[in-house]
Design brief:
Length: 487
């Protein structure tokens, strides 16, 4: 058994970094070294480094949350190396070692070390995968939440706890030293992720120091991007699989599907890696690509997950092995999602949608419906409801399937599936949503009366009728019969 480290790379028997890692300099500081970052941005950089490029764009990972200790300990124990395993649908697993992360700092250990690394002249990009919740904005108003206790702490004269406090402190140092600011690059699955990051970081910086906030607004680049790859959370089974299949002892491998995509707005203050040489698309405007992913991939995940869970399925691939569900999903994409998109240069939408079904149906990834059902109050309003609203403005609106997805969420939020088994609802609004969903039997419109989530859709007769019809069908006939009737 080979314990993963620099010293064992030559004996592993799988693809390993072909560059001298001792010559890699830190140029990127990344917050949120989770499953997605390690099979996406870190992979693109590893590919570039294997071509002899981007050796001054090595990654220093940053952890700020208590559970990041596990990542710190794993990476530090194995020279920041990890195994990436691509799980192909035919059961073939392709493994390689990624070497583009060259250091990792756990902020609670030494916040100043994190600030100093970002303030270093060699640091050109600070990137983020901190999830949508990490941007700390009110989900109704979109305004930065200055009342968050950790934000209040970071606005005082204390060592920063949050990404906002740490990054802003580093920008302050760079401003004082006359250094060009680094680019802040969001890699999170949020529409207009760069715009969102800019709005929130400027709000924090202005609350800290008005002149600093104005400087951040004026001089810091926040490029938008669209990111895509299914990367399930690493499990104990994944760790055991790497040992058994590849004879490698890796404390924290990463697993993923074969597909990956990155579309990046080409707007950086101090240059960037040549991502286009390894398959990324550098564009002037990311919006059309974002809408394609959010309204086809992400909204389709919502379209399959509640119906699938209620029907008794527990994995995405199980749902997408059922031809009735596949037809429902394709019809949602073709007739409801696609008409709301902008032209997408270089993309065959017909093929893209069929590829999505193939990706969802990959039995090796084992993407759980429980994961896809989580945090619905964040996801549905951003991925699916915009489709409904744009369709309602069209001459012949098509919303029956979208309204039914909302009804399936309401039914799921009741907390029992169709077999009578309990559902563990995971949502920041769990208590509120479940309390409302309990009233579905006495008031079939109870769930969508929640204006903090659905806005004025309760006032639209077409949507209300479609929703009510789907809710009655779910109650009387069940999830499977409902999607068949809607195909």
């Amino acid at each position: 058994m080979n314990v993963l480290s620099n010293n064992t790379l030559s004996s592993l028997g799988i693809a390993v970094p072909q560059y001298d890692r001792s010559k890699v300099k830190i140029g990127i500081v990344h917050f949120g070294v989770g499953a997605f970052h390690r099979v996406h941005q870190a992979l693109y950089l590893d590919d570039l480094m294997n071509q002899g490029e981007a050796l001054d764009f090595g990654i220093c990972g940053i952890g700020v949350m208590p559970n990041d200790v596990k990542m710190r300990d794993a990476l530090k124990a194995q020279d920041c190396l990890y195994t990436m395993v691509v799980k192909n649908p035919n059961g073939v697993y392709d493994a390689r070692v990624i070497g583009s992360i060259v250091d990792y700092l756990f902020s609670p250990d030494d916040p100043q070390a994190v600030i100093d690394q970002m303030a270093h002249v060699n640091t050109k990009i600070v990137s983020l995968t901190i999830t949508e919740g990490g941007y700390n904005f009110d989900h109704v108003t979109g305004v930065f939440d200055l009342t968050n206790p950790d934000i209040e702490h970071d606005l005082g004269d204390f060592a920063p706890k949050t990404a906002f406090g740490l990054i802003t402190a580093a920008l302050q140092l760079r401003k004082e030293r006359g250094l060009t600011p680094f680019t802040v690059q969001s890699c999170d699955n949020i529409q207009g992720n760069g715009d969102v990051a800019k709005k929130m970081f400027v709000a924090f910086a202005k609350a800290k120091d008005k002149s600093l906030g104005e400087w951040v607004h004026e001089y810091v680049a926040f490029p938008n991007s669209m990111v895509d790859r299914i990367a399930p959370v690493t499990t104990a089974e994944d760790i055991a699989m790497v040992k058994e299949r590849f004879a490698i002892e890796d404390r924290f491998p990463s697993v993923c599907e074969p597909f990956y995509q990155w579309v990046i707005e080409d707007h950086f203050t101090q240059g960037r890696p040549a991502y286009e040489k390894v398959g990324a698309q550098l564009v002037a405007d990311v919006e059309s690509y974002e809408l394609m992913k959010l309204r086809l991939l992400n909204a389709s995940h919502q379209a399959l997950t509640y119906f699938g869970y209620l029907s008794g399925y527990r994995y995405a691939h199980e749902v997408c092995s059922d031809p009735e569900f596949v037809e429902f999903l394709l019809n949602y994409m073709d007739f409801e999602g696609t008409p709301t998109l902008h032209p997408v240069e270089g993309i065959d939408l017909y093929q893209y949608k069929r590829t999505l079904i193939e990706r969802f149906a990959n039995p090796e990834v084992r993407d759980t419906l429980a994961r896809l059902c989580a945090e619905s109050s964040d996801r549905i309003p951003k991925w699916l409801l915009p489709v409904v609203r744009e369709q309602l403005e069209m001459e012949s609106p098509q919303i029956r399937r979208s309204a039914a997805v909302v009804a399936s969420w309401a039914r799921y939020a009741e907390g029992l599936d169709e077999q009578g088994d309990p559902i563990e609802v995971v949502d920041r609004l769990k208590d509120e949503l479940m309390a409302i969903a309990v009233k579905n039997n006495e008031d079939e419109l109870a769930f969508i009366r929640n204006r903090s989530v659905f806005g004025d859709l309760i006032d639209n007769e077409l949507f209300v009728c479609a929703y009510a019809e789907a809710m009655r069908s779910l109650k009387e006939h069940g999830a499977k019969a409902t999607i068949i009737a809607l195909k």
